[in-house]
Write a structure and sequence with these properties.
CATH topology: Growth Hormone, Chain: A
Order of helices and strands: HHHHHHHHHHHHHHHHHHH
Structural class: mainly alpha
Radius of gyration: 20 Å
Shape: globular
CATH superfamily: MFS general substrate transporter like domains
Distance between the termini: 18 Å
Largest sheet: none
CATH class: Mainly Alpha
Number of strands: 0
Oligomer: single chain
């Protein structure tokens, strides 16, 4: 019965979101793994990498608040497809940027649109899951989209080694624009609204500010204690990834281990392949045996994997650590995201997601997940300073320490939900 319910997801919103996110991933996996290198080769430095990410984190704060309110009033679908079109258009700025300074404009535009879209994006997926197969549904949303771009990092890595980073990345951004525009059109045509009709409202621009903050106060009051525990864990985990996450690629390629771009692309491809194989079995275990049995071992072992990456010295060691980190991330990713939804009331999900965006909480305990917010911005800047001025390993070691702190909070205070929200 559970498998039948999961298969039926393909005919609904989750199937549409998986396919359209897959199209986005096809182009995105050519650009995202090498983003830091693109900044450097457009004239930026290590601090500028952190600065750009920090700008994005700060700019997204206010839009996330309004995005949560709008998702819970005018509906999820409208926010998802309209902001998807804007994000697709923003790719053209990344494509045409003559220097790293232009990436500031692209980052601001992207952060504002993503902040407005984020709560609705997360809510329309959460609304389309059912409690007994929720982790499995989330696993599918993690498995399917990367399949579209599973070979993209390796292909573009080879291309960069031959023609140079900037020319290769410009072509990659052009591919991303086309793929993301098609995805946006499909979301506009095919998504179905999940907010109950009685909850839909006609929103006046003059009332948005007051209604947004009054609604947020109500949401904060009704959040259960366990959701606050998860929030703290997500803040610590997100702050850690904000500090260290931007520098894995530069540490592995240009600065310490000296892998080629093609080797880093091959490792990224291998990680996606492993993720595809193991995500669904882990998610089924989370649905059948409980979330914490996967979340906690994943979080306790991930810091050790990060430290192992720091002390890696060649391609095979980095590959082994990458695969291990992917296994640990997939072990806890769908289960942790389902756990956040288990404790969330449907009518408040948009605003709860907005709150998490504002304070920097990540819902997926995976080292590939980046935190936004002012806290995330501080982490980006701190990571840039540590990497450029202290040691190359320091932001990665701090990341490991904060992930370990999040694991300790979970060990002490987090409990399995007795009843999962619908």
């Amino acid at each position: 019965m559970a498998s039948l319910k999961v298969r039926s997801l393909w005919r609904g919103n989750i199937g549409i979101m998986m396919v359209t996110s897959g199209l986005w991933s096809f182009g995105g996996q050519m650009t995202w793994p090498f983003w830091s290198l693109y900044v450097l080769h457009l004239g930026g430095n290590y601090f500028h990498i952190g600065l750009l990410s920090a700008i994005g984190s700060v700019v997204s704060i206010i839009p996330s608040i309004f995005g949560g309110y709008l998702a819970d009033t005018i509906g999820r679908k409208r926010m998802v497809y309209s902001m998807s079109f804007l994000l697709s258009a923003d790719v053209l700025i990344w494509f045409a940027a003559p220097s790293w300074h232009w990436l500031i404009l692209a980052t601001v535009f992207e952060a504002a649109a993503a902040g407005l879209r984020g709560p609705a994006f997360n809510s329309i997926i959460a609304d389309s899951t059912v409690a007994e197969t929720r982790a499995e549904s989330y696993a599918l949303t993690h498995i399917v989209p990367p399949l579209f771009g599973i070979f993209s990092p390796f292909i573009i890595g080879v291309y960069m080694d031959r023609l140079g980073i900037v020319p290769a990345q410009r072509n990659a951004y052009l591919i991303l624009f086309v793929a993301s525009m098609v995805a946006s059109l499909l979301r506009f045509r095919l998504l179905r609204e999940t907010l109950p009709p009685e909850e839909l409202e006609h929103v006046k621009a003059s009332e948005i500010l007051g209604e947004t903050f009054s609604g947020m106060r109500e949401t904060v009051k009704v959040m259960p204690r366990q959701l606050w525990v998860l929030t703290v864990m997500g803040v610590l985990f997100g702050f850690g990834t904000a500090i260290g996450g931007l520098y894995w690629v530069t540490y592995a390629t240009e600065d310490v281990i000296h892998l080629t771009n093609a080797q880093w692309g091959l490792i990224s491809t291998a990680n996606m392949l492993v993720s595809t194989i193991i995500s669904l079995p882990f998610a089924r275990l989370a649905d059948q045996k409980g979330r914490l049995k996967l979340v906690m071992p994943s979080m306790l072992l991930t810091p050790l994997a990060i430290v192992a990456f720091v002390y890696s010295g060649n391609f095979y060691q980095v590959l082994a650590v990458g695969v291990t980190t992917t296994i640990l991330g997939r072990m806890g990713a769908a289960a942790s995201q389902a756990l956040f939804t288990d404790y969330s009331l449907q009518e408040h999900r948009g605003r709860i997601n907005a709150l998490w965006s504002v304070i920097g909480t990540v819902q997926t305990f995976n080292t590939g997940t980046m935190s936004g917010s002012a806290l995330g911005a501080a982490g980006n800047l701190l990571g840039g300073y540590l990497y450029g001025n202290i040691t190359r390993a320091s932001p990665l070691l701090v990341e490991a320490g904060l992930v370990a702190g999040a694991a300790c909070v979970g060990m002490l205070f987090l409990k399995e939900p007795r009843e999962r929200a619908g």
